[in-house]
Each structure stands twice: as C-alpha cells, then as structure tokens.
Amino acid sequence: MNLHKTLLPPHAELVRAMLERDTSYEGVFFTAVKTTGIFCRPGCTARSPKPANVEFFANAEQCLAAGYRSCLRCKPLDTAASAPAWVQTLFTLVDADPEQRWTDAQLLAEGIEPLKLRRWFKQHFGMTFHAWLRARRLGMALGGIKQGDSIDDAAFDSGYESLSGFRDAFQKSFHITPGRAANSEPLLFTRLTTPLGPMIAMAERRGLVLLEFLDQASLNPEVQALQNRFGYAVAPGHNLHLQQIEAQLSAYFAGTLTEFSVALHMPGSEFSRRVWAELAKIPYGRTTTYGAIAATLGKPGASRAVGLANGHNRLSIVVPCHRVIGADGSLTGYAGGQPRKAFLLRLENAAVQITEQLAF
C-alpha cells in the first residue's frame, strides 16, 4: 500500500477545493498541471486549470519526483519546507548577538527585504519580526529574574537603557510586573513545520501546554487565557519538551509513530481534564463519539458538555480530539479545519493497514 496515495481526499473533493481555491486544504494536497509542468498549493491565485489537465499529489516531494516545477506565485516549497535559508541565517545572527536592534537598513545590508520578513513572521509566528525580537529579549530578561538577577541587571542586559521603558514593555508583554516575575511560570513557544502547515508549540518546565495550527481562530484567545487565568509569561524560546514534540511530530506524519511520549501539562477545569484524559485513551487509527466519552465518564446525557471540553483541548494531534466524530459518522467540528481532521484520520488508518499487511 502506498501510504501517501491513501492520504488524498476523493477526487471530486480535490477538484472542488482547487476550483474554489480553498485554503483550508493547505498541506492536504498539491495540484500539478500537466500542460504547464507546474505544481501549486490549493489556494494559488493563478488562473484555475481545467480539471482534465490536473493530477493531485499528497506532498511536494511527489510533485518534484514526477517532474513538476514549483509555482513562482504560490511557492509551494516554502510551506513544505522549514524556514527558508534567509530566515535561518537571520536566526543565527540573532543568536550571536541577542541585544542588537535590527533596523531596516541593517536587514537590507544582510540581503533581507523588511516587508518580506514582516510577512513571513506574521504568517508563521503571528507577529512581526521586531515584535518577536522584543519578546525574545524580554523572555531572556524573565529567565534572568527567575534565576535571581536584579530587575536593573535584567533590564540593561536585555538592551534597555531606561528602567521605566523596560518595566512598561515587560508588563505589556507578560501582563505582570518585573517584581512579580520571579513567581510566574515562563511558557516558551516555537514554530514547528508540518505537512499541514505551521504550528505553534508552547511548553513550560512540566511539559507541553499548547500545540495548535497557527491559522486557527481560537489560538489568540487560548494564549490570552493561559496568560490571564493561569499566570503564564509567554516568550519565544526552546526547551526539552519543545525539542521532543518537534521530533515526535515528524515521526507521526511519517506514519512511524503511533503514541506520543512528550510530557504534558494541561491546566483546566476538573471536567475538562477528565474529558482530555479520555481523548488520550482513544487508540491510534480508531474513532469514538462524544456520547461514548460521556457514557464512559458516567454522564450519558453530557454529550454537549463533552463536545465543549473537546473543543477546548489545546494540544492538537497529541491529545487526539480529531479521533472524535459524530454519532452519525460525520467528522463534526475541528479547530484546525475539517480537511486537516480528515487528513489525520486517513494518515492513521493507512498506517494501521500497512502494519496489518506486514504482520501477515
């Protein structure tokens, strides 16, 4: 069985999504046009080709292997790969000198177009480069305060010449004063590349707290709730949990990992945590319903409440809310979009079938 081939939706659905430029199918499939030899993302704004001249592939690598070239307008390889080389170079420069204040002139001197950089960061981090840079410096200051540095040292070490300016920026970013920061919990975040589009992962010392697709509407409210209700100070960074989820997600999408082992920390109400615990028990490649979960919890009439708690799950894929379907077999809602939900279920089902075939 060809794992990648089984990941494609039905042909009619692919044609409709292509003709309507449905961006919710980003990463689910790629369109290859036989008459031009070019392949595109589903939402490409170029003139739609005739369906008879098109073939569909599950990933960019298959398009390249079939002899197609990347579209210059929608740039499908940019979404299929990790950060482009020019962004990786900038990351290296920032790591080498975290206190540097990057001006447009300095960016241009490095061959980086400021507007292009702004767009890339907004798409993949949900903020501009300069906002990310400020958050990163403040995150380093937060780490210093947690380790016993004075507020003065933290301010000047992070490049602020004014204590009042540092305090204002710190409170605006973390919703707490520097004086209270020693008692707060840093929540570090990083961007992850997946075949279904960029995701953001957040983790504190106890484990992974959030894993969501960057384009979903519920992301900002979720982050605000973590800050306001649970006292987290959110900043760019990296830790062991974020490194683990990056590696494990890669293996999951390759069809070789069926159970995540990264540590999790899931603040929420008692009922929500009970629902999330049941979600985590749904076997790979299987599905269940809201009603079945409610019955397991001893609350057979609480399907709606289970659905709400399921929707408040902050850990996409790892806590597999995508494995919950309607009683009639329909996919029902999914914060990342139903095309992604369908893709994840096809991925798991195909991997299970391959495993079963190899066992015989």
Your description of this structure?
The chain is built from 15 helices and ten strands. By secondary structure, it is an alpha/beta fold. It has three domains: 5-80, 3-Layer(aba) Sandwich (DNA Methylphosphotriester Repair Domain), CATH 3.40.10; 82-182, Homeodomain-like (Arc Repressor Mutant, subunit A, Orthogonal Bundle), CATH 1.10.10; 184-360, Orthogonal Bundle (Arc Repressor Mutant, subunit A), CATH 1.10.10. The strands form three sheets. The protein has a four-stranded mixed β-sheet with strand order 3-1-2-4. It has a four-stranded mixed β-sheet with strand order 7-6-5-8, with helices on both faces. A two-stranded parallel ribbon has the order 9-10. The longest helix has 22 residues, at 338-359. The two termini are 14 Å apart. It is found in: Cytoplasm. Its EC number is 2.1.1.63. It catalyses: a 6-O-methyl-2'-deoxyguanosine in DNA + L-cysteinyl-[protein] = S-methyl-L-cysteinyl-[protein] + a 2'-deoxyguanosine in DNA; a 4-O-methyl-thymidine in DNA + L-cysteinyl-[protein] = a thymidine in DNA + S-methyl-L-cysteinyl-[protein]. Residues 111-184 form the HTH araC/xylS-type domain.
